[in-house]
Amino acid sequence: MTWTKQRLNNLFFIIGVVAVVVMLFTFDVSFVELWQHLCHAGYWLIPIIGVWFLVYGLNALAWQATIEGNLGGKAPVSFWRIYRLTITGYALNYATPVGGLGGEPYRIMELSKDIDKEHATSSVILYAMMHFLAHFWFWFISIFIYLALVLAGDLPINTFIGTVLGMIVAFCLLAFYLFSKGYRNGLVKYVLGLVSKLPGLKRWTLRFWARHSEAIENIDKQIVSLHGQDKQAFYKSLMLEYLSRVVQSSEVLFMLLLFGIDNGGGFYGITITYLHAILIVAFTTLFANLIGFLPMQLGVQEGGFVLSIAALGLSAALGIFVSIICRVREIIWIVVGILLMRLRD
After folding, report:
1. Which run of H or of E encompasses 102?
2. What is the reported pLDDT for 293?
3. Chain segment 16-60, per-residue pLDDT in tens
């Protein structure tokens, strides 16, 4: 079993290395233009890259809260190990297609070295659910931030914008309903039921259920119990995940300040600029997640930044700059995550 896990670890490592190489050679700009953008960023690259130490730290704390809530006590896993697996998991998610299916299997494989496989699986599923639930809350609350800035006379509103905002609200409310069903009734059986309806997969689903029915039942019970019995761990994890997105918006704030966009400066001006950064990240991540089947959402994230920044009345050139610097930051952290796979606790 240990030998098999080691071989899988090596496979994930190779996939990550290949993905990084492909990303470098399929970059959307020439290396000369890339170097010009990096020179323009200058020392601002330090806080832009460094803020993700805190973002991943909040993600790790959220996952730790989920694990402890799932186990009903203190997790027999050090925070450093959870932090490392968090970074590596996201690195694999960024580097693999279909919404990032590489990180979760890796996390389950590694976490099962510390706790039993069923709890490892349910803890990873629960954290993935929390991660996506926090996304929806981030998008949902961002709508009201936009409307508040409209009332303050800072942002425009018209029929088209109002329709788009209404559609996002409806989309988030539908997601909240589906998540509530998953937390009340379990998720694995529900997903398997959906898979069984796909052409050609019914027999496979029935065989999978026959072999793993007991484990699936236990995993779903653990998913239901976190929300029903340990609400403190549930809401702690959700708040930490939401906060990580607010902190993530700091990197866009730094880039806006770099371009001299501070809405007059001072506390009020910086606050308004920070709210703009939150809106840019919210609408860009919404756009990228709607089309999440591409590695690193190649081209999608760039378009999302340009569109969301233009929607706030800022220049397209700024959108291109922000997208390129964010792409560089992602590649740096992917490399860090892949290298962390070779460390041993």
Report:
1. none
2. 46
3. 555 555 555 555 555 556 667 677 777 888 999 999 999 999 999
295 token code pair: 């590695």
CB 247, CB 54: distance < 8 Å = yes
**What radius of gyration do the chain's Cα atoms show?**
21
Is residue 120 within 8 Å of residue 178, measured between CB atoms? no
Q: What does the pLDDT look like over 307-339, one tens digit per residue? A: 677 667 777 677 778 878 888 888 889 889 888
From 205, 204, 178, select the one nearest 192 (Cα to Cα).
205
Name the residue among 61, 67, 66 with its Cα closest to residue 79: 61
For residue 345, what is the DSSP state?
-
| Confidence at residue 3, expressed as pLDDT on a 0 to 100 scale | 44
**Structural contact between residues 283 and 308, judged by C-beta atoms closer than 8 angstroms:** yes
For helices 250-258 and 231-248, give the axis angle rounded to 10 degrees.
10
Best CA proximity match to 278, nearest among 108, 146, 132, 87: 146
Distance CA 82, CA 111 (A): 9
Question: Cα–Cα distance between 11 and 181 in angstroms, integer?
Answer: 35
Q: What is the pLDDT of residues 149-203, one digit of tens each?
A: 999 988 888 998 899 999 999 999 998 988 887 777 766 676 666 667 766 667 7
Q: If DSSP codes are grouped into helix, strand and coil, which group holds residue 113?
A: coil
Our CA angle for 234, 129, 220, nearest 5°, is: 80
pLDDT at 35: 64
Distance CA 239, CA 58 (A): 10
Q: Where are the beta strands (DSSP E) in the chain?
A: none
- Give the model confidence (pLDDT) of 250-270 as tens digits: 999 998 888 888 888 788 889
Contacts of 217 (CB under 8 A, 6+ apart): 189
Amino acid symbol at 327: R
Phi/psi at 287 (5° precision): -65, -45
Dist CA 113 CA 9 (whole Å): 13
* Separation of alpha carbons 4 and 6, rounded Å: 5
Task: Give the other-Cβ count within 10 Å of 116's Cβ.
Answer: 12
| Measured distance CA(158)–CA(144) in Å, rounded | 15
